[in-house]
Amino acid sequence: MSILLWTYILVGLSFTLYIGIAIWSRAGSTKEFYVAGGGVSPLANGMATAADWMSAASFISMAGIISFAGYDGSVYLMGWTGGYVLLALLLAPYLRKFGKFTVPDFVGERYYSQTARVVAVICALFVSFTYVAGQMRGVGIVFSRFLEVDINTGVIIGMCIVFFYAVLGGMKGITYTQVAQYCVLIFAYMVPAIFISINLTGNPIPQLGMGGSLADGTYLLDKVDGLSAELGLAAYTEGKKSMIDIFCITAALMVGTAGLPHVIVRFFTVAKVKDARISAGYALVFIAILYTTAPALAVFGKYNLINAVGGKEGISYKDSPQWVKSWEKAGLIAWVDKNGDGKIQYAAGKALEGAVAFGTGTGSEGQREVTTKPTTDPNEIYVDNDIMVLANPEIAGLPNWVIALVAAGGLAAALSTAAGLLLVISSSVSHDLLKMNLMPDMSEKSELLAARISAAFAIVLAGYFGIYPPGFVASVVAFAFGLAASSFFPVIIMGIFSKRMNMQGAVAGMIVGLVFTLAYIIYFKFGDVLFGFPKEAIANDKFLFGISPEGIGTIGMILNFIISYVVSSVTPPPPQEVQDMVESIRFPRGAGDATH
Amino acid sequence: MENNKTMQQYWKKNISYVLVLMSIWFIVSYGFGILLVDSLNNIRLGGFKLGFWFAQQGSIYVFVILIFVYVWLMNKLDKEFDVDEK
After folding, report:
1. Residues 6 or more apart whose Cβ sits within 8 Å of residue A175
2. How far is Cα of residue B20 from the mean position of the Cα atoms in its chain?
3. Which residues of A touch B67 (CB under 8 A)?
4. Which residues in chain B are contacts of A586 at CB distance < 8 A?
5. Which chain B positions have a beta carbon within 8 Å of A281's beta carbon?
6. What is the pLDDT of residues B33-82, one digit of tens each?
7. Residues β-bridged to residue A368
8. Which member of A66, A212, A583 has the closest CB to residue B47?
9. ipTM score
10. A359, containing H or E segment
């Protein structure tokens, strides 16, 4: 059977499964809609959290990013897993005991202030929208690559599926579809990885194959270091970024993870405090399976790529492997024969100035014409990050159904994350803004209706961003994590661990943390476009202590902690009932159900 | 106030567990994986340089273990102080 037919079958089957689950798990109350009724088993919640967390970017792009960044790629591996330790030890059990529906709920009550609640709602909305736009785009891209439909059609199909189970089932529908989606995505990720590991190193476990040796007896990592040196690239196992930058980016990603509302809210869905702790553990196990495989795939991919293009000698385009040509056709590989020798040369530096664009003609060797201006660097080949996952089955010579499986896995990853984010958006609007703020007299039934309507509205908006992605989408991921790290995380931590922390301290801390982080990111990312700063003023060597915008959330967080502490110690302590509440969330007994 | 006193003890114990586990969390990732990576890279773990292994594999395994150890410790502590959920 052809790849296309297999893809239709597997994607069709997985979608039928998701819809089936959605119909079975319709939400009948706001409690079911917001927190799946509060009775999800810890294991199921762990799986759902893992699917919720691992986005299209984790599934499709991360291995490729690490493959090109080498050691520097570790920031994502440690950063996006280490946050779960913070969640399990510092946040999840206490927020579960607190037992409300949303993160703004906690901020609003702990700091006895509607202003604090509204600030939290705005942050939650901003973070979630930033994220969800990328997911819908991811759905469109997977569709267009594997099912030969236009990206926009793909986005619309994705919207319809998410609409079905998010609007109908709320958190309940989302949770159980995420469990199914996790199974699909992890299977799709592991199968090609295991085969490639066996091909290269003879070891079926990719995590071990990564440290294994090749057929000629040299260690794979040493070989890749050696090959990289020959090509003039940085050694794979050593980084280029400064240590302080690596440190700060890792910290910002870890703390940001622990402060992301769509992750935190998952811990409201279990029955007990005990369950919240253990389900963070399960979640990290399920995440770690993919996150320890990704760096292995990254090395395998790097080795295969260097070999495919003939290493230092280069290879004539005609003799290059078939997968190079088929992914060139798909637009993920491009070759410009800069020195006119008919050979592909892979070397340090970027091959092209900016994003790749193709003309309609063909070059002397039959390669696709590239209309993007080539750089003066010797590197002649452009390789998209996504190829390390997408092209794997083909590189390893795996059957067509495996390629189709990767498509279904990518869609599962994108859809599950999108759904989780949409729920945060809808509950922020219907619960935090309407019920708790503007229309407190709203009945249960109308709140549920409002939740469904805002979910539907959010899907349409997310789809719009997916079809017309704002140009800055790629660089705003730094915003999401920086914002969560510099605002939510310190406020929640101090809310739990310090009884003395009061509204004045928290609000001052959040404002300083947020403003500092936002200003830094905007200055360095968009300073030239928005304010016309000269390029030199926002160049990388002007970074404060050499910390890039991706890592500045760490400094924002530290500022937040300091300011909150100082301000709270010169202002009156919080009311007695708030202090009692803090006291009560520290002890598991009597957690009861998540309620209003 | 007796009750209050035992509760304080429970909380203190919890905090001390958290501090120990968070120190390990910090050492394996920020310590071994970042600050000490260059010196650890002189040591080999099979085909891996040790610092690189911690940064891309080892720290993640330790994170998982840390959470399960905390769960085990706290379940015991909850029972000991009779604050566990029925």
Report:
1. A25, A36, A40, A44, A45, A48, A269
2. 6
3. 84-85, 88-89, 277, 280-281, 284
4. 7, 11, 14
5. 64, 67-68, 71
6. 999 988 988 988 888 889 999 999 999 999 999 999 999 999 999 888 88
7. A362
8. A212
9. 0.94
10. strand A358-362
Task: Using alpha carbons, select from A385, A401, A384, A402 the residue that is nearest to residue A393.
Answer: A402
Would you give the end-to-end CA distance of chain A in angstroms?
54
The answer to whether B63 faces chain A, any CB pair under 8 Å, is: yes
Partners of A383 in the β-ladder: A333
The verdict on B5 touching A (C-beta cutoff 8 Å) is no
In chain B, whose CA is at the least distance from the CA of A251?
Answer: B30
Comparing A80 with A366, which gets the higher pLDDT? A80
* Ranges A232-236, A478-482, A577-581: which has the least confidence: A478-482
Helices B2-26 and A74-86 cross at an angle (nearest 10°) of: 170
Could you list the beta-strand ranges (E) of A7-60: none
Residues from chain B that touch A90, judged by Cβ atoms under 8 A, are 18
- Nearest residue of A to residue B17 by CA position? A89
In degrees and rounded to multiples of 5, residue A15 shows phi and psi of -65, -40
Closest-CA distance of chain B to residue A85, Å: 6
Local confidence band at B1 (pLDDT 50, 70, 90 cut-offs):
very low
| pLDDT score recorded for residue A161 | 85
Mean per-residue pLDDT, A142-148: 76
The predicted pLDDT at position A191 comes to 92
pTM equals 0.90
Nearest to A84 among B57, B63, B83 (CB): B63
Closest Cα in chain B, distance from residue A88 (Å): 6
Q: How far B64 CA lies from chain A's nearest CA (Å)?
A: 6
What's phi and psi for A479, nearest 5 deg?
A: -60, -50
How many angstroms separate the CA atoms of A388 and A405, rounded? Answer: 15
Residue A32: which H helix or E strand, with range?
Answer: helix A30-35
Nearest CA among A10, A54, A6 for reference residue A408:
A10
Closest CB to B21: pick one of A89, A93, A292.
A89
Task: Give the chain B residue whose CA is nearest to the CA of A222.
Answer: B47
Q: Give the ranges where chain B is alpha helix by DSSP (H).
A: 2-26, 37-40, 50-53, 59-80
- Residue A394 burial (C-beta neighbours within 10 Å; 0-12, 13-18, 19+): buried
Residues of A in contact with B36 (CB under 8 A): none
Instruction: Compute the distance between CA of residue A41 and CA of residue A26 in angstroms, rounded to an integer.
Output: 18
Backbone angles phi, psi at B30, to 5 degrees: -70, -35
pLDDT at A251: 94
Work out the mean pLDDT of chain A and round it to a whole number.
85
- Looking at residues A335-359, what average pLDDT do you find? 82
Q: Which residues of B touch A81 (CB under 8 A)?
A: 59-60, 63
Q: Is B39 exposed, middle or buried (0-12, 13-18, 19+ CB in 10 A)?
A: exposed
Do the beta carbons of residue A409 and residue A290 sit within 8 Å?
A: no
Select the residue from A236, A587, A593 to test the B interface by mutation, using most B Cβ atoms within 10 A: A587
Q: What is the pLDDT of residues A184-233, one digit of tens each?
A: 999 999 999 999 999 889 899 999 988 888 888 888 888 888 888 888 88
